[in-house]
Amino acid sequence: MSVLSGLKNIHQMYFSKPESDRLLYRAIRRQRVTTILELGIGNLDRTLRLIAMAGRLQGDMAQIAYTGIDLFDARSPDFEPLRLKDAHQSLSRSGAKIKLVPGDVDNGLTRMANALLGTDLVIMHTPQVLQPCSKAWFYFPRILHHATEIFQEEPSVGEDQPGGYRTLAHEEIHHLAQSVSGRRVA
User: For the chain, what is the total number of helices (H) and then of strands (E)?
Assistant: First the structure.
């Protein structure tokens, strides 16, 4: 990794705005992430920075796989519009392997679970967060490995207190999966 790349990574981990995103950049650095799953794309520019940082750390952008599940063109008017075509064009320029899955998180995760085995980083955004009773929790444990980090966006309390990210423990994920299925989940 070049000195310039190292400086970019340091800037993102310790000085980038918003401050809450620093947690995600540090997770990429700590885990040497190669696979990212985003449930609801929060900010396309931030997603590009996450992918770029993972690629710099791996030394080869082609090793990075990104999957985004989002409503895209069907988003509510309350949220920033994001067209599937525009998202795909922007993210594909990164050089990473990009998979975009249109639709709600419940159905998207249910359809894609077997293709997402061994995901390193999972980011869930507020408008797309799975409800505790969602059937998709049953499939969630199969995409995880022992070092997967899962972050759930917390809503902002006001303008003076922006939202951040809460780390979900694997035990919490397994508990949610068991409560949906009614049986033990591996």
Answer: 7, 6
